Amino acid sequence: MVESSLTFILCKALFLCLTNKLASTLLVSSRSMASKTPVGFIGLGNMGTPMAKNLLKNGYPIIATDVFPESRKELQDTGAQVVDSPADVAEKADRIITMLPSSPNVIEVYTGPNGILKKVKKGTLLIDSSTIDPAVSREMALAAEKMGAVFMDAPVSGGVGAASLAKLTFMVGGVEEEYQAAQELLTCMGANVVYCGQVGTGQAAKICNNMLLAIGMIGTAETMNLGIRLGLDPKLLAKILNMSSGRCWSSDTYNPVPGVMEGVPSANNYQGGFGTTLMAKDLGLAQNTATNTKTPIPLGSLAHQIFRVMCSRGYANKDFSSVFQFLREEEGQ
Protein backbone atom coordinates (compact mmCIF):
# COMPACT_ATOMS: atom_id res chain seq x y z
CA MET A 1 0.00 0.00 0.00
CA VAL A 2 2.83 2.35 0.95
CA GLU A 3 4.68 1.43 -2.26
CA SER A 4 1.57 2.20 -4.35
CA SER A 5 1.19 5.61 -2.67
CA LEU A 6 4.87 6.45 -3.29
CA THR A 7 4.56 5.37 -6.93
CA PHE A 8 1.47 7.56 -7.35
CA ILE A 9 3.19 10.58 -5.80
CA LEU A 10 6.30 10.13 -7.96
CA CYS A 11 4.22 9.76 -11.12
CA LYS A 12 2.22 12.89 -10.25
CA ALA A 13 5.40 14.86 -9.58
CA LEU A 14 6.91 13.72 -12.86
CA PHE A 15 3.72 14.65 -14.71
CA LEU A 16 3.68 18.14 -13.18
CA CYS A 17 7.35 18.61 -14.00
CA LEU A 18 6.85 17.64 -17.66
CA THR A 19 3.71 19.78 -17.91
CA ASN A 20 5.53 22.85 -16.54
CA LYS A 21 8.48 22.26 -18.87
CA LEU A 22 6.15 21.96 -21.87
CA ALA A 23 4.30 25.14 -20.91
CA SER A 24 7.61 26.97 -20.54
CA THR A 25 8.78 25.74 -23.93
CA LEU A 26 5.52 26.82 -25.57
CA LEU A 27 5.78 30.27 -23.93
CA VAL A 28 9.33 30.78 -25.18
CA SER A 29 8.30 29.56 -28.63
CA SER A 30 5.31 31.91 -28.75
CA ARG A 31 7.50 34.87 -27.74
CA SER A 32 9.99 33.95 -30.41
CA MET A 33 7.29 33.73 -33.06
CA ALA A 34 5.73 36.99 -31.88
CA SER A 35 9.06 38.78 -32.16
CA LYS A 36 9.50 37.63 -35.76
CA THR A 37 6.98 39.96 -37.30
CA PRO A 38 7.84 41.40 -40.74
CA VAL A 39 10.92 43.62 -41.00
CA GLY A 40 11.21 46.27 -43.69
CA PHE A 41 14.50 46.62 -45.57
CA ILE A 42 15.28 49.50 -47.94
CA GLY A 43 18.50 49.59 -49.96
CA LEU A 44 19.59 46.31 -51.53
CA GLY A 45 23.11 47.05 -52.72
CA ASN A 46 26.36 45.18 -52.04
CA MET A 47 25.79 45.49 -48.29
CA GLY A 48 22.02 45.60 -47.98
CA THR A 49 21.29 42.40 -49.88
CA PRO A 50 23.41 40.04 -47.73
CA MET A 51 22.18 41.80 -44.58
CA ALA A 52 18.55 41.26 -45.57
CA LYS A 53 19.31 37.65 -46.49
CA ASN A 54 20.68 37.03 -42.99
CA LEU A 55 17.45 38.32 -41.48
CA LEU A 56 15.56 35.89 -43.72
CA LYS A 57 17.83 33.05 -42.55
CA ASN A 58 16.93 33.93 -38.96
CA GLY A 59 13.23 33.57 -39.68
CA TYR A 60 12.22 37.20 -40.15
CA PRO A 61 9.78 37.85 -43.01
CA ILE A 62 11.25 40.68 -45.12
CA ILE A 63 9.37 43.44 -46.95
CA ALA A 64 11.87 45.19 -49.19
CA THR A 65 12.40 47.76 -51.89
CA ASP A 66 15.21 49.30 -53.90
CA VAL A 67 15.48 51.73 -56.80
CA PHE A 68 17.04 48.99 -58.96
CA PRO A 69 14.61 46.24 -60.12
CA GLU A 70 17.40 43.64 -60.43
CA SER A 71 18.27 44.08 -56.75
CA ARG A 72 14.63 43.63 -55.77
CA LYS A 73 14.41 40.49 -57.91
CA GLU A 74 17.44 38.88 -56.25
CA LEU A 75 15.96 39.24 -52.78
CA GLN A 76 12.49 38.26 -53.94
CA ASP A 77 13.94 35.00 -55.25
CA THR A 78 15.19 34.21 -51.73
CA GLY A 79 11.74 34.66 -50.16
CA ALA A 80 11.29 38.38 -49.49
CA GLN A 81 8.14 40.31 -50.33
CA VAL A 82 8.97 43.20 -52.66
CA VAL A 83 7.03 46.48 -52.81
CA ASP A 84 7.35 49.63 -54.93
CA SER A 85 8.37 52.36 -52.48
CA PRO A 86 9.66 53.13 -48.98
CA ALA A 87 6.17 54.35 -48.09
CA ASP A 88 4.79 50.92 -49.01
CA VAL A 89 7.36 49.30 -46.72
CA ALA A 90 6.35 51.60 -43.86
CA GLU A 91 2.70 50.68 -44.38
CA LYS A 92 3.44 46.97 -43.90
CA ALA A 93 6.25 46.87 -41.27
CA ASP A 94 6.83 48.48 -37.89
CA ARG A 95 10.57 47.74 -37.85
CA ILE A 96 12.52 49.10 -40.81
CA ILE A 97 16.22 49.01 -41.69
CA THR A 98 17.72 51.31 -44.32
CA MET A 99 21.12 50.83 -46.01
CA LEU A 100 21.74 53.68 -48.46
CA PRO A 101 24.76 55.27 -50.20
CA SER A 102 24.67 58.87 -48.93
CA SER A 103 22.93 61.62 -46.95
CA PRO A 104 20.75 62.82 -49.88
CA ASN A 105 19.54 59.24 -50.43
CA VAL A 106 18.59 58.93 -46.75
CA ILE A 107 16.73 62.26 -46.78
CA GLU A 108 14.80 61.19 -49.90
CA VAL A 109 13.91 57.72 -48.58
CA TYR A 110 12.68 59.07 -45.24
CA THR A 111 11.10 62.43 -46.13
CA GLY A 112 10.52 62.30 -49.92
CA PRO A 113 7.10 62.12 -51.65
CA ASN A 114 7.10 58.31 -51.38
CA GLY A 115 9.22 58.24 -48.23
CA ILE A 116 8.92 56.20 -45.06
CA LEU A 117 7.49 59.07 -43.02
CA LYS A 118 4.52 59.44 -45.38
CA LYS A 119 2.98 56.22 -44.07
CA VAL A 120 4.99 55.32 -40.97
CA LYS A 121 2.99 53.90 -38.06
CA LYS A 122 3.32 55.24 -34.53
CA GLY A 123 5.83 53.26 -32.51
CA THR A 124 7.77 52.10 -35.58
CA LEU A 125 11.50 51.48 -35.01
CA LEU A 126 13.64 52.94 -37.81
CA ILE A 127 17.27 51.80 -38.01
CA ASP A 128 19.55 53.50 -40.52
CA SER A 129 22.76 51.61 -41.30
CA SER A 130 23.94 54.06 -43.98
CA THR A 131 27.11 56.07 -43.39
CA ILE A 132 26.00 59.71 -43.45
CA ASP A 133 26.55 63.07 -41.78
CA PRO A 134 25.68 62.84 -38.06
CA ALA A 135 23.67 66.07 -38.46
CA VAL A 136 21.42 64.34 -41.02
CA SER A 137 20.86 61.45 -38.58
CA ARG A 138 19.74 63.93 -35.94
CA GLU A 139 17.48 65.66 -38.49
CA MET A 140 15.84 62.35 -39.43
CA ALA A 141 15.38 61.47 -35.75
CA LEU A 142 13.48 64.71 -35.15
CA ALA A 143 11.31 64.15 -38.23
CA ALA A 144 10.54 60.59 -37.12
CA GLU A 145 9.73 61.72 -33.59
CA LYS A 146 7.09 64.13 -34.94
CA MET A 147 5.38 61.13 -36.55
CA GLY A 148 5.56 59.06 -33.36
CA ALA A 149 8.38 56.82 -34.63
CA VAL A 150 11.86 56.15 -33.24
CA PHE A 151 14.99 56.65 -35.39
CA MET A 152 18.40 55.16 -34.57
CA ASP A 153 21.64 55.37 -36.54
CA ALA A 154 23.53 52.08 -36.79
CA PRO A 155 26.30 52.28 -39.42
CA VAL A 156 28.44 49.21 -39.98
CA SER A 157 32.06 48.17 -40.36
CA GLY A 158 33.35 44.97 -41.94
CA GLY A 159 32.60 45.18 -45.64
CA VAL A 160 30.77 42.84 -48.00
CA GLY A 161 32.48 39.70 -46.71
CA ALA A 162 31.42 40.38 -43.12
CA ALA A 163 27.91 41.27 -44.31
CA SER A 164 27.60 37.87 -46.02
CA LEU A 165 28.89 36.01 -42.96
CA ALA A 166 26.81 38.06 -40.48
CA LYS A 167 30.02 39.32 -38.84
CA LEU A 168 29.49 43.07 -39.16
CA THR A 169 30.14 45.55 -36.36
CA PHE A 170 27.22 47.91 -35.70
CA MET A 171 27.77 51.28 -34.02
CA VAL A 172 24.42 52.38 -32.62
CA GLY A 173 23.21 55.84 -31.67
CA GLY A 174 19.76 56.67 -30.31
CA VAL A 175 17.40 56.39 -27.36
CA GLU A 176 18.96 53.88 -24.98
CA GLU A 177 15.57 52.40 -24.06
CA GLU A 178 15.14 51.27 -27.67
CA TYR A 179 18.62 49.75 -27.99
CA GLN A 180 17.54 46.24 -26.97
CA ALA A 181 14.83 46.18 -29.66
CA ALA A 182 17.37 47.24 -32.27
CA GLN A 183 19.94 44.77 -30.96
CA GLU A 184 17.54 41.85 -31.56
CA LEU A 185 17.68 42.50 -35.30
CA LEU A 186 21.29 43.67 -35.57
CA THR A 187 22.71 40.54 -33.94
CA CYS A 188 21.25 38.54 -36.85
CA MET A 189 23.53 40.49 -39.17
CA GLY A 190 26.60 41.19 -37.06
CA ALA A 191 29.04 39.77 -34.54
CA ASN A 192 29.39 43.04 -32.60
CA VAL A 193 26.69 45.56 -31.69
CA VAL A 194 27.92 48.56 -29.69
CA TYR A 195 25.77 51.29 -28.15
CA CYS A 196 27.55 54.64 -28.63
CA GLY A 197 25.12 57.17 -27.14
CA GLN A 198 22.57 59.64 -28.51
CA VAL A 199 21.51 59.83 -32.16
CA GLY A 200 24.49 60.64 -34.38
CA THR A 201 27.16 59.04 -32.20
CA GLY A 202 27.04 55.83 -34.23
CA GLN A 203 27.85 57.90 -37.33
CA ALA A 204 30.63 59.70 -35.47
CA ALA A 205 32.26 56.38 -34.56
CA LYS A 206 31.94 55.10 -38.14
CA ILE A 207 33.45 58.25 -39.66
CA CYS A 208 36.43 58.05 -37.29
CA ASN A 209 36.91 54.36 -38.10
CA ASN A 210 36.82 54.91 -41.85
CA MET A 211 39.24 57.81 -41.71
CA LEU A 212 41.75 55.56 -39.93
CA LEU A 213 40.99 52.74 -42.41
CA ALA A 214 41.76 55.03 -45.37
CA ILE A 215 44.99 56.29 -43.82
CA GLY A 216 46.03 52.73 -42.96
CA MET A 217 45.30 51.45 -46.46
CA ILE A 218 47.35 54.21 -48.08
CA GLY A 219 50.20 53.51 -45.65
CA THR A 220 50.06 49.78 -46.38
CA ALA A 221 50.02 50.39 -50.15
CA GLU A 222 52.98 52.79 -49.93
CA THR A 223 54.92 50.36 -47.75
CA MET A 224 54.29 47.35 -49.98
CA ASN A 225 55.17 49.35 -53.09
CA LEU A 226 58.45 50.59 -51.56
CA GLY A 227 59.38 47.08 -50.43
CA ILE A 228 58.72 45.64 -53.90
CA ARG A 229 60.88 48.35 -55.49
CA LEU A 230 63.63 47.46 -53.03
CA GLY A 231 63.53 43.87 -54.27
CA LEU A 232 61.43 42.21 -51.55
CA ASP A 233 58.93 39.49 -52.42
CA PRO A 234 55.48 40.93 -51.61
CA LYS A 235 54.29 37.79 -49.79
CA LEU A 236 57.45 37.75 -47.68
CA LEU A 237 57.11 41.44 -46.87
CA ALA A 238 53.45 40.99 -45.90
CA LYS A 239 54.44 38.07 -43.64
CA ILE A 240 57.10 40.19 -41.92
CA LEU A 241 54.73 43.15 -41.47
CA ASN A 242 52.07 40.89 -39.99
CA MET A 243 54.40 39.55 -37.31
CA SER A 244 55.80 43.00 -36.56
CA SER A 245 54.66 46.35 -35.16
CA GLY A 246 53.48 47.55 -38.59
CA ARG A 247 50.68 45.00 -38.67
CA CYS A 248 47.18 46.36 -39.39
CA TRP A 249 43.87 45.25 -40.92
CA SER A 250 44.93 46.45 -44.36
CA SER A 251 48.07 44.32 -44.24
CA ASP A 252 46.81 41.09 -42.65
CA THR A 253 43.15 40.89 -43.73
CA TYR A 254 42.70 43.05 -46.84
CA ASN A 255 46.14 43.32 -48.44
CA PRO A 256 46.08 45.65 -51.46
CA VAL A 257 48.78 43.82 -53.48
CA PRO A 258 47.57 41.33 -56.10
CA GLY A 259 48.76 37.80 -55.41
CA VAL A 260 49.42 38.24 -51.70
CA MET A 261 46.02 37.06 -50.45
CA GLU A 262 43.07 35.11 -51.84
CA GLY A 263 39.44 36.17 -51.47
CA VAL A 264 40.10 39.94 -51.37
CA PRO A 265 39.43 42.56 -54.08
CA SER A 266 43.14 42.84 -54.98
CA ALA A 267 42.93 39.19 -56.09
CA ASN A 268 40.01 40.04 -58.40
CA ASN A 269 41.19 43.18 -60.22
CA TYR A 270 39.81 45.24 -57.31
CA GLN A 271 36.20 44.30 -58.09
CA GLY A 272 33.63 44.17 -55.30
CA GLY A 273 34.44 45.27 -51.77
CA PHE A 274 34.19 48.92 -50.67
CA GLY A 275 34.24 51.35 -53.58
CA THR A 276 36.67 54.23 -53.90
CA THR A 277 33.72 56.60 -54.40
CA LEU A 278 32.25 55.56 -51.06
CA MET A 279 35.58 55.97 -49.28
CA ALA A 280 35.97 59.45 -50.76
CA LYS A 281 32.43 60.23 -49.57
CA ASP A 282 33.17 59.04 -46.02
CA LEU A 283 36.40 61.04 -45.91
CA GLY A 284 34.40 64.06 -47.03
CA LEU A 285 32.13 63.53 -44.03
CA ALA A 286 35.20 63.36 -41.79
CA GLN A 287 36.55 66.56 -43.36
CA ASN A 288 33.24 68.39 -42.83
CA THR A 289 32.88 67.33 -39.22
CA ALA A 290 36.54 68.18 -38.54
CA THR A 291 36.00 71.66 -39.99
CA ASN A 292 32.84 72.16 -37.92
CA THR A 293 34.59 71.10 -34.71
CA LYS A 294 37.90 72.86 -35.56
CA THR A 295 39.74 69.52 -35.32
CA PRO A 296 43.06 69.16 -37.18
CA ILE A 297 43.17 66.04 -39.41
CA PRO A 298 46.20 66.52 -41.69
CA LEU A 299 46.48 62.84 -42.68
CA GLY A 300 42.71 62.52 -43.04
CA SER A 301 42.68 65.53 -45.36
CA LEU A 302 45.50 64.09 -47.48
CA ALA A 303 43.70 60.74 -47.67
CA HIS A 304 40.54 62.54 -48.81
CA GLN A 305 42.50 64.30 -51.55
CA ILE A 306 44.12 61.04 -52.74
CA PHE A 307 40.82 59.16 -53.01
CA ARG A 308 39.15 62.09 -54.77
CA VAL A 309 41.94 62.13 -57.35
CA MET A 310 41.54 58.36 -57.77
CA CYS A 311 37.84 58.86 -58.57
CA SER A 312 38.78 61.23 -61.38
CA ARG A 313 41.39 58.80 -62.73
CA GLY A 314 39.15 55.81 -63.39
CA TYR A 315 39.18 54.16 -59.95
CA ALA A 316 35.74 55.32 -58.80
CA ASN A 317 34.09 51.90 -59.07
CA LYS A 318 37.07 49.87 -57.93
CA ASP A 319 37.68 48.81 -54.34
CA PHE A 320 39.49 51.42 -52.28
CA SER A 321 42.51 49.09 -51.91
CA SER A 322 43.21 49.91 -55.57
CA VAL A 323 45.19 52.83 -54.13
CA PHE A 324 48.15 50.43 -54.50
CA GLN A 325 47.59 50.26 -58.27
CA PHE A 326 47.10 54.04 -58.36
CA LEU A 327 50.48 54.60 -56.68
CA ARG A 328 52.18 52.17 -59.07
CA GLU A 329 50.80 54.11 -62.02
CA GLU A 330 51.77 57.44 -60.50
CA GLU A 331 55.42 56.39 -60.20
CA GLY A 332 55.55 55.74 -63.95
CA GLN A 333 54.52 59.28 -64.86
UniProtKB/TrEMBL annotation:
GO MF annotation terms: 3-hydroxyisobutyrate dehydrogenase activity; NAD binding; NADP binding
Enzyme class, UniProt record, top EC level: oxidoreductase
UniProt record, GO biological process: L-valine catabolic process
The entry's keywords: Branched-chain amino acid catabolism, Mitochondrion, NAD, Oxidoreductase, Signal, Transit peptide
Gene3D superfamilies: N-(1-d-carboxylethyl)-l-norvaline Dehydrogenase, domain 2 (1.10.1040.10), NAD(P)-binding Rossmann-like Domain (3.40.50.720)
E.C. no: 1.1.1.31
Occurrences of domain 6-phosphogluconate dehydrogenase NADP-binding (ranges): 39-197
PROSITE patterns in alphabetical order: 3_HYDROXYISOBUT_DH
3-hydroxyisobutyrate dehydrogenase-like NAD-binding domain location: 200-326
Main location: mitochondrion
This protein's pathway: Amino-acid degradation; L-valine degradation
InterPro entries (alphabetical): 3-OH-isobutyrate_DH-rel_CS, 6-PGluconate_DH-like_C_sf, 6PGD_dom2, 6PGDH_NADP-bd, HIBADH, HIBADH-like_NADP-bd, HIBADH-related, NAD(P)-bd_dom_sf
GO cellular component, one term: mitochondrion
Leader sequence residues: 1-25
Active site positions: 206
Location of this chain's protein in the cell: Mitochondrion
Reactions listed under catalytic activity: 3-hydroxy-2-methylpropanoate + NAD(+) = 2-methyl-3-oxopropanoate + NADH + H(+)
Homology family: Belongs to the HIBADH-related family. 3-hydroxyisobutyrate dehydrogenase subfamily.
Protein name: 3-hydroxyisobutyrate dehydrogenase
Species of provenance: Dicentrarchus labrax
Lineage, highest ranks first: Eukaryota, Metazoa, Chordata, Craniata, Vertebrata
Encoding gene, per UniProt annotation: hibadha
